From TrEMBL:
<feature type="domain" description="GGDEF">
    <location>
        <begin position="329"/>
        <end position="463"/>
    </location>
</feature>
<dbReference type="InterPro" id="IPR043128">
    <property type="entry name" value="Rev_trsase/Diguanyl_cyclase"/>
</dbReference>
<keyword id="KW-0548">Nucleotidyltransferase</keyword>
<dbReference type="InterPro" id="IPR000160">
    <property type="entry name" value="GGDEF_dom"/>
</dbReference>
<protein>
    <submittedName>
        <fullName>GGDEF domain-containing protein</fullName>
        <ecNumber>2.7.7.65</ecNumber>
    </submittedName>
</protein>
<dbReference type="Pfam" id="PF00990">
    <property type="entry name" value="GGDEF"/>
</dbReference>
<dbReference type="GO" id="GO:0052621">
    <property type="term" value="F:diguanylate cyclase activity"/>
</dbReference>
<dbReference type="InterPro" id="IPR050469">
    <property type="entry name" value="Diguanylate_Cyclase"/>
</dbReference>
<keyword id="KW-0808">Transferase</keyword>
<dbReference type="InterPro" id="IPR029787">
    <property type="entry name" value="Nucleotide_cyclase"/>
</dbReference>
């Protein structure tokens, strides 16, 4: 299949997506990151693949699509150590902390502080701002405004002196600063912030709704409540996830109570009750229970060795096995791949290619002549079978596996059905000890012979 972009085009699209994100133009950034992810996968450029997914995580978080974030976090976790550079690892860690905070998992405040200290020492200015902003939001959300104000005064010199900080980071810093100062009843400073934001045109479209909400809060203290509610309703109408303004909604209700605007109190309390009921349902749902279970250390460790597409063991599992320099005897190893796989991708598209890989993986998983056989997706359409038995024990089983794969119909999107052709290279050792890596090299050579005529099984002894 023809590549989506050249590597040079891919890099340009990635940089444009990054800049659009920093400017708050998510409607531009999101589709670009998705295209870069697809392109990077085609090129097997896993450094770029991981980086683009980490940036996409933050767009999903910032647009309140938390249910969509979870699969990306799980997908990135096993890859980040190998393919993520230092700063992208910390960006991914920030996404995990935000996600955990949203789902009330762990101790996010301590995690934010630890990460802020780490990135500040490395002088990652924009990332430092992102972590600090999220910690400020945490203080706003929990009502710990004195803690938040200490962070505000700590960070303010950086924002005042550094004009290179992204527009998005600057906007959110001043919005959260407004809220902390509002809680401290410093309404004149709040007014200066709103004027400053508008004069410098820093308001970003993706979070525009926060500006009229802040206007409403200030208007309630310094002007007309009727005008304040016009501002607030404007912000409500543009908010994607009302849970993100739960704190501000409570502040508005408190002011309405103070001013005995009971009809308006009922209106906004109804919104709040619906919102809290919805959140309560989630808190008690199986979805949240599953998320908490899956974010355990045991789950992370297990995912490190699982291929996300096929759910068989992945290359990390195989390479860790090699690091142990394990010698084996009476052992069989096979390498299997799909014949003319590029033609399948080119004819039917990448999605059908993925379905073909999963089709083969499912049959490998159901093929279980011995309980201690390991199936590994080595990469692309190539699989390895690790069999701790001599070839004479499993010879007929391997031939039966090959026959089953060759004869089982593969359906393409309910439109067309055909049989896949697969080739298998087998290597085995008898009574002498050999390294698994040596067996793999012999099996890899055997599969090249098998693919000459396609759909063959070629067997070689290592002795």
């Amino acid at each position: 299949m023809e590549k989506l972009f050249t590597l040079e085009e891919q890099q340009r699209k990635f940089l444009l997506a990054q800049q659009s994100f920093k400017d708050g133009d998510y409607h531009i950034a999101e589709p670009l990151f998705r295209l870069v992810i697809e392109s990077a996968f085609q090129h097997e450029d896993y450094d770029m693949y991981v980086s683009a997914m980490v940036w996409l995580e933050r767009i999903l978080i910032n647009t309140s699509r938390m249910s969509e974030v979870y699969p990306y976090i799980i997908l990135v976790n096993p890859l980040i150590e190998k393919y993520g550079y230092e700063e992208i690892k910390e960006r991914h860690e920030l996404s995990c902390i935000i996600f955990n905070a949203y789902n009330r998992i762990g101790q996010p405040q301590e995690a934010y502080k630890k990460l802020l200290q780490e990135v500040s020492q490395k002088q990652y200015t924009d990332l430092t701002c992102a972590v600090a902003n999220n910690l400020m939001y945490h203080f706003v959300d929990t009502g710990e405004y004195q803690e938040g104000l200490r962070l505000y005064y700590q960070m303010r010199p950086l924002y005042e002196k550094n004009n290179s900080i992204s527009r998005m980071a600057r906007y959110m810093f001043w919005i959260y600063s407004f809220e902390l100062l509002y809680l401290n009843k410093d309404y004149e400073e709040c007014q200066r912030i709103l004027i400053w934001l508008k004069e410098r045109d820093i308001i970003v479209d993706s979070f525009y709704f926060m500006y009229p909400i802040c206007q409403a809060l200030l208007e309630m203290r310094m002007g007309s409540i009727d005008q304040a509610l016009i501002y607030f309703d404007d912000g409500l109408a543009q908010t994607v996830d009302l849970m993100s303004i739960k704190f501000e909604l409570n502040l508005v209700i408190d002011v309405l109570k103070e001013n005995e605007r009971y009809k308006d109190v009922i209106k906004y309390q109804s919104i709040l009750i619906d919102l809290l009921n919805e959140h309560y349902d989630f808190e008690n749902s199986s979805e949240r229970t599953t998320i908490i279970q899956n974010f355990s250390r045991q789950f992370y460790e297990s995912q490190l060795y699982v291929d996300q597409l096929t759910k068989v063991q992945n290359r990390n599992f195989y390479e860790d096995l090699l690091k142990k320099q394990q010698q084996v005897k009476n052992y069989t190893l096979f390498v299997l791949d799909i014949d003319r796989f590029k033609l399948i991708n080119g004819t039917y598209g990448h999605a059908v290619g993925d379905e073909a890989i999963k089709f083969v993986a499912d049959r490998l998983k159901s093929w279980n002549p011995k309980h201690d056989i390991s199936i590994v997706r080595y990469g692309g359409d190539e699989f390895i079978g690790l069999i701790p038995y001599g070839y004479e024990v499993v010879e007929e089983d391997i031939k039966e596996l090959h026959k089953k794969l060759m004869q089982t119909p593969f359906k393409v999107a309910d439109i067309e059905t055909f049989s896949l052709s697969v080739s298998i290279g087998v290597a085995y050792t008898a009574g002498r000890y050999q390294l698994i890596d040596q067996l793999f090299r012999v099996a890899d050579a055997a599969i090249y012979e098998a693919k000459v005529n396609r759909g063959q099984v070629v067997v070689k002894s290592i002795e």
